[in-house]
Amino acid sequence: MKGLAGKTALVTGASSGIGQAIAIRLAQEGCNIAINYRKSAEEAEETEEMAMQKACGQVEECGVQSLLIQGDVSQEEDILEMVKAITDCFGGFDILINNAGIQKECASHEISTQDFDRVLSVNLRGAFLCARETIEHFLLQNRSGIIINVSSVHEIIPRPSYLSYSISKGGLGNLTRTLALEYAGRGVRVNAIAPGATHTPINEAWVNDPKQKAIVASHIPMGRPGTAEEMAAAAAFLASDEAAYITGQTLFIDGGLTLYADFRETWSA
Ligand code: NAD
Q1: pLDDT confidence of 205, banded at 50, 70, 90?
Q2: Residue owning the nearest CA to atom 18 of ligand 1
Q3: Which atom of ligand 1 is least distant from the CA of 199?
Q4: For residue 268, is it within any domain?
């Protein structure tokens, strides 16, 4: 895709699922990639290996480079260190993918303050802190830049028993639009992708259970969950110059989930 080769991207939570697929896809498009992971260095190394294979497998002299960075996006000091590490290694960066995310299932009247805060501090506060430091970096280096937030269909669809998750993703939508408006005149584009049900570890409750998976699929107009690679393709598009005139948007990638499957057949006059 136009404009990605030679850029440098930081992908948070890139050791699994959608973040891993985005890191691999961006490397394939010629980006240097900084792979943030929280816990599993082995999984992050797998991401790196697959990304470099895609980027350089067929090429003799491959310019693509990678960096593994451990860090918890809910910790401000970790984010400052991440930005420093990536700047020291690559001289700076051009693309931030705010992907790290968690969810906790609990009836809303029973959720503990601690669990509520944890989800918000990773999914929303973490995305804000990464965006803040990244934008400051873009402005200091006088470079244009891209931020992509990995939101969810639950940015707009309420999700009972996942209150903190729904709130975090609703907030990400407004984070996206507000930053987009504030920095549009300074060369920073901010967009979001909003996956529907996607085949990744966060959905371990149903991905490996054929019965549960069929139930999930029955709610999706296109009749199947999405893949991490389909989410990565959309993120790469929004990060590329093909999307040069797009900012402040959330792109729903959901097989029609946000079209409300219940309305497939007429049930009211
Ligand atoms: P996943 O569990 O594989 O990925 C989440 C990643 O975030 C993991 O690698 C995890 O280690 C990392 N992470 C968690 N806490 C972190 C922290 N404090 N600091 C740094 N990294 C941290 O699941 P996924 O489906 O790939 O999720 C990626 C994003 O996509 C999440 O933001 C999720 O909300 C969003 N999403 C997923 C789906 C889906 O159906 N899979 C749907 C909509 C949105």
Answers
A1: confident
A2: 72
A3: 41
A4: no
Q: Assess whether the C-beta atom of 164 lies below 6 angstroms from ligand 1.
A: no
Mean pLDDT of 183-206: 96
**Nearest ligand 1 atom to alpha carbon 21:** 26
- Residue 1 resides in a domain: no
Residue 2 falls inside a structural domain: no
pLDDT tens for 91-138 read: 999 999 999 999 999 999 999 999 999 999 999 999 999 999 999 999
* Domain range for 46: 8-252
Structurally, how many domains does the chain consist of?
A: 1
The structure's pTM equals 0.97
Alpha carbon 199 to its chain's center: 14
Q: Is 165 a catalytic residue?
A: yes
User: The domain spanning residue 186 has which CATH number?
Assistant: 3.40.50.720
- Give the pLDDT confidence of 76-85 residue by residue, as tens digits: 999 999 999 9
Report yes or no on 264 lying in a domain: no
